Amino acid sequence: MHGLVNGVRFGAVVILVALALAGCSGSGKSDPASAQSPSPDAAWSHPDAPPDPHTLLRAGDLAVSQVPASRLISIESQTSDAGTWRALVVTPDGAEQQLKVGSDGMAVLAGPTATEDSDADKAKRRANLDGTQLDYRNAVNKVLGVVPKGSITELSLLDMNGTVVWDADVWDADLVEHDVTVDAATGVVTANRAV
Questions:
Q1: What are the pLDDT digits (tens) for 18-68?
Q2: Cβ within 8 Å of residue 86, ≥6 positions away
Q3: Contact 139/168 with Cβ under 8 angstroms?
Q4: Whole-prediction pTM
Q5: For residues 145 and 138, what is the distance between their CA atoms, to the nearest angstrom?
Q6: Cα separation of 96 and 113, whole Å?
Q7: DSSP letter, residue 21
Q8: Where in the chain are the domains?
């Protein structure tokens, strides 16, 4: 009986430690939109089950197909909105359109909707795209090459210190988040760190 009580006590301690660790995890990235007061569920920072990587590709393909001559520059799984995808595409003149795509990547739920753009915003997007040899599909392949069986929940084309990169948030099979960066001109993976 004494062994059973100790086993139950040990199990309770393990559960409490696991819950405490889950509440302490975070991506380390700041987002002005998330600076508002957190919801009660905000402590749990990773998805229950990351989306299948193929849904990101389907959602990206669908978003690009909705805006003629566009290129995808960002796609993100919206876990707070039933796992829908938020996609941003850019036309050759640098104008950006936003779409909301279903979680399975098969249906457009909203958009395309033009975002408010300044001439500087458009010029920056054109410059980023001009320096890009790797499209989002090839970037996904590079990212999954360094995080096998991973699932990408966010992929964005960014300028990091003068270098245009694809930056990805990836969850591995053990639900550990990785930040992976791929040079958009050369295809070289420049960072892969657990967050």
A1: 333 334 434 333 333 333 333 333 333 445 555 676 788 999 999 999 999
A2: 74, 75, 76, 78, 98, 99, 100, 101
A3: yes
A4: 0.71
A5: 11
A6: 8
A7: H
A8: 53-194
